[in-house]
What we know:
- By secondary structure, the chain is an all-alpha fold.
- The protein contains 29 helices and no strands.
Amino acid sequence: MKTMKMITAILAFGLIFGSIASAQSQEADKAKQVYEQAKKALALKDWKTAIEAFKKIEAEYGKSGYYGESLYWLGYSTDKYAASLEDMELQIEKHKEAIDRLSLLLETLPESSWAKDAKILQLQIAETLAKRGLSEYSKYINGAIGGIEGGVEGGVTWGVLGSVGGGQKKPADPDLEIKLVALDALMGMDKEKAFPILEKILKEDKRPELRERALMVLGQSGDARVLPILTELAVSDPSPRVQQMAVMWLSQRHDDASVDALLKIYEKASDAKLKERLFYGFAQSNHPKAQAKLLEIAKNEKDPKLRNNAIFWLGQKKDDSSLATLIQIYDTADDIKVKENLITSFAQSDSEKARAKIAEIAKNDKDLKARERAIFWLGQKRDDNSLATLIQIYDTVEETKLKENLIMSFAQNNSDKARAKIMEIAKNDKDLKARERAIFWIGQRGSDDVLDILLDVYAKTDDVKVKKQIVMSVSQNHSPKAVRALIEIARKEQNLEVKKQIIFWLGQSKSEEAMKFLKEIIDK
Length: 524
């Protein structure tokens, strides 16, 4: 009898475990199917579809083997989707989402084979956001720099170069690796014996990895003999990375001779990346000659990319002299990209002069895109003065596009004044598109008091487009009160197009009350 009970128990456990294994297999198959759909969308650069599929894996298949990789590709797809958008605010929002997904991967799966790729991509996106004025994202860049060996100065050094050359690689040649270890040992040797060996390597050795290590050792020396070697390497070394390293070490020296050397290198340089590295050197130096050169490039450089790069570094200095120069450059600039970069630089400054310049651009600039960018940054300030300026601008502009940008700024501001302005626009603005936009943003709040406002506006308007926008906003509320309001409107509304839209949204609500009303219409 006991034997029979044991057999029965074993069979029962077998059935249970078999059922679990079957369920797990089905789950794995579903995860694989979604993953393959996501990767197909990725290959086609259909970012929205890829995002939806990778999000499904994150939400439903977190225990599958595709989870970590999917988080990386979700961050990647979201970043690419952001880059495809024209709306700057939406771009920033999506870049933030991408960073969040990559952070989730690094926090939950730090040992994942995708962690390194995630860190690199996260740094690239953080740099984009930081350059757009969201300084809080600099923490990702600073964190990566701070974690590098070599102390504060060495960490900054290699952190900067890492963004250019992708970090140092281990050589495949074992003899070369031995030489690199030997070069490290030279740091503790007699400098007079070490110097000629390092100089010989830098001038004669064909292997860039070895020259890089020698340059790192020699570059930290304050010896005057280093200066001509660094200058020669920056101009003539066949490796772009070695050239950039030489410029970096020169920029750390801060003496007259080193600044003169950097200026001469810039005049001879033809490589754009080397010039950008020189900008960094000029920006890090407080030497008057370096600052003058940066100002000259920002004013007169014909290459727009180089000019914008110089403007970016000037904006980082945040001193009155640099700000005055940037304002002067803006007042003579014709290129919209230059103008947009200058506006971003003004936005990064906390000075009243910079704030006044942004307000002036938002009010009066002849370039519509420049005004849009200035309005966006004013909206990010979220203080009473900026809001007052935005309201003043709204009351004087006629361009619908500007009005829509202003309304979005009001919607992002939680103050009573901003909400009152949106309500006023929704009720009274003569520009129907502006009214529609205001109604849309009001509808996003989703509370009962907002519902009452929307219904009040509906009752006082005859415009079909405005009515349709209100109907759509009310339908997003999903509350029983909203359903009853739509039914009541449908009973009274004479316009066929509006009535059809109300019926459509009622059909989407899945409310019993709505279904009853629809049946009532059908049975008539």
